Input
Amino acid sequence: MDIEPGSKMLGHKIDYVFLGSCTNGRIEDLRAFTNFVKGKKKAENITAWIVPGSKQVEKTSHRRRPC
Output
């Protein structure tokens, strides 16, 4: 990948987006991600995986609108 920890992503091609187990998929993480992408459209060549850390987080994410 040639990406060092802490380096900027600007200018790097992105194929996959994953939000989940490495952050434990907390509801706060899902809300932050939602706020970041609000009003934006996912490019067709991008695969995005959003994986809640638990069934409770999944239920909450479907029930509530992110802040």
The first strand starts at residue 16 and ends at 19. The mean pLDDT is 83.
